[in-house]
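Sharing a chain and its predicted structure for anyone who wants a worked example. Both blocks are below, sequence first, tokens second.
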Amino acid sequence: MDKEIQMSVPLQDERRRKYTTPARVQAWFLQKSRDNWKKKYSLVKADVRQLKNHVSDVKTSREQWRERAEQYARRLEEVEEQNIALQEQLAALKKDGQPSGPTGPRQ
């Protein structure tokens, strides 16, 4: 019952996989793989550059539109204030009984 089971550990050389593919074929495959990786990377890099430019353009456009909207909002406030002032003047003129037109009352 006290039998020792011996497990043999394979040597480093035995564990190493033996390739049957010639080194020149492996070198060709690795070079092709590397070239494909570089081509893919350059395409991705160009896409990133294009997207960054697009984001920059959109930010610039958004800022310009925001400035225009703020200018129009300020102009609208000014026009509304002028409108209120003119309405008050018109109401005051009507209250005082002044003629409503430049030549007098209409007939």
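Comments welcome. The chain has two helices and no strands.
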